[in-house]
């Protein structure tokens, strides 16, 4: 028996791709083999995943499908009678993309419609957050279960974390995530304008992530804002390259700030915890669930007030240490909650 995993796309560094790799590693420890397949795979990533045209599915193989958007993958899988397992990562609401990418908006709308097809044709369903699980249950996935997202921090060491704040002379804000309208990098730029107005130009804000070429107009909008608001020296947009770059930028930053308005989980929140960075995030989607009782959540994008609240993190050492302590407790609890056993149970059933 092989356990093959499928998704619309594979790109090393994104949350779904990392989850697929980690599940493959954990299944291999249990003696199960299998490959990762997607409709879209960058040539540089083909040592990790292959295009679906190359798959050979045998009678006893199990199909694990990671769903987040419409693609040809679902129709391809439906032709096989094999056991099918859904892992749901959420579908971003289409309205975020309508002003920038109508094709992508259409794929999101179809991706939500696909859930009804999946419900009728898949034997088992999981969701990577309770936020996602509630959506599946609302749609009639009566036996869906929570399957916490698997994270692999072994690729990063801990040597950097002891004296992190001692080495920084000024605030260095960071957001990691796709350059996309639902992530609201435009609001991060508005925050940067407010910070500069209230506290001067001794700070930096970096936004690290891949931008879909079809959504170049949103990236152009961000760059225009940076120029018009005279933030070229303080605000930088950095295209994702590899994990070494991610690690370096996490190490060089001292506060993680998210304005995202839709998240099915948000892995970078926990990555920031791992790097001992206070996390401040807009309370949207699964973000409150992912943070647990840690970090700072805000529900109103009042940027002047937010700058004042965040400034306390840099001026009050006890407050900052308390934030990091509670984040460490949350991260430890989350990592202990993940297990491959729920997936193994349905594979064997």
TrEMBL record:
Q: Does the keyword Transferase apply?
A: yes
| One Pfam assignment | Glycos_transf_1
User: Origin, by domain of life?
Assistant: Bacteria
All copies of the Glycosyl transferase family domain together span: 171-325
The Swiss-Prot or TrEMBL record annotates one GO molecular function as: glycosyltransferase activity
Provide the alphabetized UniProt keywords: Transferase
CDD domains given for it? Answer: GT4_PimA-like
Task: Name the GO terms of the biological process aspect.
Answer: lipopolysaccharide biosynthetic process
The protein in question is named Glycosyltransferase
Q: Which organism is it from?
A: Leptospira ellinghausenii
């Amino acid at each position: 028996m092989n356990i093959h995993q499928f998704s619309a796309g594979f790109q090393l560094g994104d949350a779904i791709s990392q989850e697929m790799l980690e599940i493959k590693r954990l299944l291999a420890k249990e003696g199960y083999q299998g490959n990762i397949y997607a409709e879209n795979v960058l040539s540089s990533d083909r040592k990790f995943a292959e295009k679906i045209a190359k798959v050979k599915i045998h009678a006893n193989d199990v199909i694990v499908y990671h769903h987040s958007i419409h693609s040809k993958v679902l129709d391809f899988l439906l032709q096989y009678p094999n056991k099918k397992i859904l892992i749901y990562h959420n579908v971003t609401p289409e309205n975020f993309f309508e002003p920038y990418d109508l094709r992508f908006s259409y794929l999101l709308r179809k991706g939500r419609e696909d859930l009804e097809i999946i419900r009728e044709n898949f034997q088992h369903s999981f969701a990577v957050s309770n936020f996602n699980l509630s959506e599946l249950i609302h749609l009639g996935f009566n036996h869906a279960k929570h399957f916490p997202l698997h994270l692999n921090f072994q690729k990063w060491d801990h040597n950097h974390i002891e004296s992190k704040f001692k080495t920084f002379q000024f605030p260095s804000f960071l957001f990691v995530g796709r350059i996309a309208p639902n992530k609201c990098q435009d609001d991060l730029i508005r925050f940067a304008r407010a910070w500069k107005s209230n506290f001067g130009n001794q700070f930096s804000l970096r936004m690290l992530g891949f931008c879909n070429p079809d959504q170049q107009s949103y990236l152009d909008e961000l760059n225009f804002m940076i120029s018009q608001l005279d933030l070229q020296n303080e605000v930088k947009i950095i295209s994702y390259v590899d994990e070494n770059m991610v690690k370096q930028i996490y190490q060089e930053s001292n506060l993680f700030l998210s304005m995202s308005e839709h998240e099915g989980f948000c892995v970078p929140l926990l990555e920031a915890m791992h790097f001992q960075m206070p996390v401040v995030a807009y309370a949207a989607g699964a973000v409150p669930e992912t943070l647990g009782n840690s970090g700072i959540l805000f529900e109103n994008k009042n940027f002047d007030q937010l700058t004042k609240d965040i400034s306390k993190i840099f001026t009050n050492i006890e407050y900052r240490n308390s934030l990091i302590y509670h984040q460490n407790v949350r991260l430890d609890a989350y990592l202990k909650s993940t297990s491959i056993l729920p997936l193994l149970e349905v594979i064997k059933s």
